[in-house]
Amino acid sequence: MTSASSTLPRVIAFPKSGIAYADCLYPAVEQQGVTVIAGTWAGRWLLANVQAGDIAHIHWPSFFYYDARSRRKTLSGLARFFLLYGLIRLRGARIVWTAHNLYPHEGGKGEWTHRVVRRFVTRSADLVIAHSPSARKILVAEFGVANEKIVEIPHGNWIGYHPHSVSKADAREALGISRDAFVYCMVGACRPYKNLEALIEAFKRMEGDSYLLITGQFQSPDYRARIDALLAQLPAFRFRMDARFVGDDDVQKYVVASDAFVLPYKEILTSGSAMLGLSFGVPVIAPNIGSMVDLITDDRGILYDPMECDGLFAAMNRIRTRTYSGASIIAFAETFNWSRSAQALRAALSKL
Description:
With 352 residues, the protein is of the alpha/beta class. 40% of the residues lie in helices and 14% in strands. The strands form two sheets. The protein has a six-stranded parallel beta sheet with strand order 2-1-3-4-5-6, with helices on both faces. Strands 9-8-7-10-11-12 form a six-stranded parallel beta sheet, sandwiched between helices. Helix 2 packs across helix 15 and helix 8 runs parallel beside helix 9. The radius of gyration is 21 Å and the shape is globular.
């Protein structure tokens, strides 16, 4: 491993830690003998640390330039982004972008700065990473990326990242949910693109012992108010909303308590949330877009057409009539381990 590592390029990660994906990927990459250092998006740092032959691995470019609250800060951030990106090039480093999403969730395709940066990065980067075959096709179609520039490196699972020690009965008791209820769950940051409105509207039409469990932190007070108003139309005994950040140790309680993990996203390229449900053996309901079509099959959940007005409602009804093997779903998720992702990344970087 030591001798091989001397022939491998050094990776400068933006970011290396602080986000679950990076926290899982880079330790596995280092196990492959690749040196990974945490990058700082600042001129002085780049001048002092970037060396010829390094690989700058960028994940979410919009973090470096976009400010939803200030057009002035966005424009100045955009100029700074291009300047520092060029500086990395001048230092002799190569650039890799992992396409976690097609466009940033904040602003989306309608934000012209996102369109400009995506076009620029896909054309100028030495390598673009997609998480699935469907994601690759979408990137090629949207940005005209050369197919040979894209490498597929699957998103890893969350098995072991979150504890999985609580039983369904204990999880429901802790949350105050009946053992007999059929629980639809959404876990994660509550943002407009996740389309909680559609989930709640569909759930309002559900009958019987159905129960809705939502947990996650809101960034927008306006969006929180809109969701609260919709939930107020439901009987209090039919739902639970925990509008807060849920720590890694507590995630299991919410997912294990559920019978179906519902992701009614308006748009998605890759979903760590879908992998979260699968990692706990819970079937997933999702639209037939992005990487969802590569992950969710009839034995792991239900895909629906988001263009059909009753598509989500029908899927939520249909999943109650099916029987799933939690063990089989977890076994599928286990094939997406971080070690394999790291091996694929190491192989791709060694060819640059």
